[in-house]
Structures are given as C-alpha cells and as structure tokens.
Amino acid sequence: MRKTILVASVLCFVVVTTVRSQSVIGKWKTIDDETGKPKSIVEVYEKSGKIYGKILDILDPQKKDKLCTECTGDEKNKPVLGMVIVKGLQKDAEEFNGGSITDPVTGKKYKCFITLEGKDKLKVRGYIGFSLIGRTQYWHRVK
C-alpha cells in the first residue's frame, strides 16, 4: 500500500511539473523583427481565466522611458514599460486566442493567438480579419 501511494505521489509530481513547464505563463524575451536583437521582456500571466502579457523590461536603455504616443484611448501617451500589450486570450485546444495584442511602436491593435512551439518558444501571431493576414513573432522563455 505504501509503495502504491509513493508511486502515485511521484507520478503526480512529474505530471504537474511537466504541465507547468509547458505553460505559456512566464517571462518571455521578444525579438525585433528587423534587427533580430532582443527587444523586451514580457510577462504572460493568467487573470480571471484569461491570458494577458505585460512589458516588464525594455532592453534598449534609450527606449526605457518611451511613451505610446501612437496609442489611442486610455493607453495614449502612457509609458510602454509596464503596458499590458496582450489582452483577453482564452484557451482553445492547443492555442490561446480571442483577444488582442497592441504594437506599442505603432499603437495599432490586432487580433491575436499564441501557442507553444516547444517548452521555451512561444509563437505569437497578430492579424487583421483572419489569421492569414498578419505577422508572427517567436518569443523565447526567460529562465
């Protein structure tokens, strides 16, 4: 009986650890599309059953104090550092979708979906209309 409980406990620990390591939740390094250099650190988190992403750090010291001058509404002229750029994604099979992503450089909002491409690589797609017209970025987990 004790062996069964021990085996079950170890198995539960392995499953929980594996599931946690395969989560979109965590800190991710974004990469600049044009230069290929690291751009920022975004924390992806869950709130009320939905997924959000907030800019925790801007890696270019000259851009740390940048404001989102092109944004509209409540985000207009707010600091990019600390801005929630991914909003309201919900799990749908192997991806999260149904929310939006804001490009703090242009201020434009796009529909968005994210999916894991391995435990340390996140595919982030922003698009207009349907997902064929858009742009994909790959973010890398910060350890």
TrEMBL record:
Residues of the DUF2147 domain: 26-141
Matching InterPro entries: DUF2147
Protein known as: DUF2147 domain-containing protein
